[in-house]
């Protein structure tokens, strides 16, 4: 266990690294503090989150940029933008490197959170913060993985967000920035990763409604933070509801189309059949018929004249 002097030294180093925008150094200081103390004060938890968020953000952004250069249904040959299709193999190799970097950071954070959650089991607000952070880093893992690995990351993110949300409703005001941030990220998981549009809308709508209560009890800084997160939720709701309407319109159009096809098939079945209804010929059939007619015609020419 680190003594007070050691703790203050590591925390001070992290703060100085933050001022210098040296996120790797800041993250290393906070990682060491977690390893040596197995517990963090609330302000130290904020430092931990800030360090790793800023360390990971440029790697995630790079991954999304590189991924956009690979073929997709909308852009079958985007590699041409960076020197032709021959670049695709290099792009894929570099994306694999970025994926490994993202997963490495996420796994490190998740491992650090485990002892902190145990130490914070009697501090509800801190536990909400740590559940949210765990959900976020499992969600980041889901961004860059596929198949069973992605499914596992999504399940872990859901578990963390659900646990944090249930606890937040009991111990935090609806306008608390932490509770709003948790709802924001959970709804994004539902929309972007799970394709659960209705669930995303429900989570965001409930958070926006709850945020209208308790603003008076917040500090000025928290009110600004709360307003910012509420604004993001409202913006997402507007976009997602428009998407929901588009999906409903597409579903209705498809349903009408299927009904018209079914009606046409029923009408066709009710019509009396003629030879043309059930005899179809391809090109070979037509050629054979023409040949048969030609033989008939030739045969007639060869018949002896009638008496």
Q: Which tags fit this structure?
A:
single chain; 307 residues; mainly alpha; Delta-Endotoxin, domain 1; 79% helix; globular; disordered C terminus; 14-3-3_domain
What would you say this structure looks like, in words?
The protein is built from 11 helices and no strands. The longest helix is centred in the C-terminal third of the chain and has 51 residues, at 220-270. The protein has 2 domains: 1-71 and 88-171, Delta-Endotoxin, domain 1 (Up-down Bundle); 173-266, Delta-Endotoxin, domain 1. It is mainly α and 307 residues long. The chain has helices at 4-19, 23-37, 42-67, 88-119, 124-144, 147-171, 177-193, 197-210, 220-270, 275-278, 283-302. This is 14-3-3 domain-containing protein. Residues 7-254 form the 14-3-3 domain. Pfam families: 14-3-3. Residues 288-298 have a biased composition (Basic and acidic residues).
How are the SSEs ordered, and which strands pair?
Layout: H1 4-19, H2 23-37, H3 42-67, H4 88-119, H5 124-144, H6 147-171, H7 177-193, H8 197-210, H9 220-270, H10 275-278, H11 283-302
Briefly say what this structure is.
With 307 residues, the chain is mainly α.
Please write the string of helix (H) and strand (E) elements: HHHHHHHHHHH
The helicity comes to over 70%
Total individual domains: 2
Poorly predicted ranges: 276-307
Mean pLDDT: 87
Number of helices: 11
Major sheet characteristics: none
Q: Give Rg in angstroms.
A: 32 Å
Question: By helix and strand content, what is the structural category?
Answer: mainly alpha
Which topology of the largest domain does CATH recognise? Delta-Endotoxin, domain 1
Task: Please state roughly what percent of the residues sit in beta strands, choosing from under 5%, 5-15%, 15-25%, 25-35%, 35-45% or over 45%.
Answer: under 5%
CATH fourth-tier homologous superfamily of the largest domain = 14-3-3 domain
Q: How many strands in all? A: 0
Second CATH tier, the architecture of the largest domain: Up-down Bundle
Termini Cα gap: 128 Å
